[in-house]
Amino acid sequence: MKGMVNRMKDRFCVFKASAKCSECGGTIILEGPRQDLQCPHCRSNCDAGPGFWKSLLEDALDDYVTLRPGESSSSSLFMGDRQIQLVSGREAPSCDGCKTRLPIEDISEDQTTPYECSCGTSMFVWPAPGWLRSVLPAARQVFGAPPEGSSDSVALTTPPVALKPIWFACPRCSASLEIRVETPRILTCEYCEADLFMPDELWRSLHPVRKRVPWWIRFSPHGAARAGTGTSTSAGFTANPGFGGPKQRRRRRR
Fold first, then answer.
1. Which pTM value belongs to this model?
2. Which helix (H) or strand (E) holds 12?
3. DSSP for residue 237
4. How many CA atoms lie within 13 A of 179 on its CB side?
5. Which of 33, 63, 67, 75 could form a disulfide with 90 if both were Cys (CB 3.0 to 4.6 A apart)?
6. pLDDT tens-digit readout, 175-233
7. Cα–Cα distance for residue pair 68/49, rounded to 1 Å
8. Distance CA 63, CA 48 (A)
9. CA distances from 134 to 24, 49, 53, 107 (A)
10. Which residues pair with 253 in a beta bridge?
11. Phi/psi-derived region of residue 246, left when phi > 0, alpha when psi is between -120 and 50, beta in every other case
């Protein structure tokens, strides 16, 4: 019972974030604290070391004490030539499939296996990596974000959704072609052998634009959230300047 009480006092922050690639300007969905980020558009590797994540998350920790449960704030951060859109809030982890709150009291701090929800959705759960704790010592556990080195998306497994094939008329011979999710965007007509480029509307109906999805970090109720010195706050966090130079922030509460 004692362990359950202490765990319920932990602080849970929810995040949704995206960044603009400094090379091509494309949107990069930030699916949790990981350093191996790559732009999905130009395949450029992005600098996302501990300093980047410290600078990104520390303001959200300061906001925590001013937010009511379920409330969030939206920020636009500018770090050098990089622009980040961040939504952070005071909210416990919930299933991405059915939105039911996770039974936090039943999930140990060192759990590395996914949480299996009764709706069929599997959700990543893993201890905060050492490099994150080196800059945010209060960070203890990550929910809903794929671990570093994983090629999976945020939801490890979601209930299957049946997608019906779409019939597309070849613009050259007018033959009906069956288009499925696995069909490449540049395809060859099986009748006249013409190379065809799938129109945007058709392609996006099978491959929707990715949206920011939530992930959570569990922070211990006591001790500094950040490494280093600073002025203590009522939440046990420390207030100090951003990492790696000036940072501009525009904030909107909701």
1. 0.71
2. strand 11-20
3. -
4. 24
5. 67
6. 999 998 889 989 999 999 999 999 988 887 887 766 778 999 999 886 545 555 333 33
7. 31
8. 22
9. 31, 12, 11, 23
10. 73
11. beta
What is the C-alpha to C-alpha distance for residues 81 and 1, in angstroms, rounded to an integer? Answer: 49
Running DSSP on this structure, what letter comes out for residue 95? -
Nearest residue to 94 via CA among 84, 105, 103, 85: 103
Q: How far apart are CA 204 and CA 11, in angstroms?
A: 38
For 105-136, the pLDDT digits (tens) are: 889 989 999 999 988 888 999 999 999 999 99
Structure tokens at 63: 């906001």
- Longest Cα–Cα distance of the chain, Å, equals 73
The Cα–Cα gap between 76 and 84 comes to 6
Q: How far apart are the first and last CA of the chain?
A: 35
Give the position of tokens 């209930």.
Answer: 159
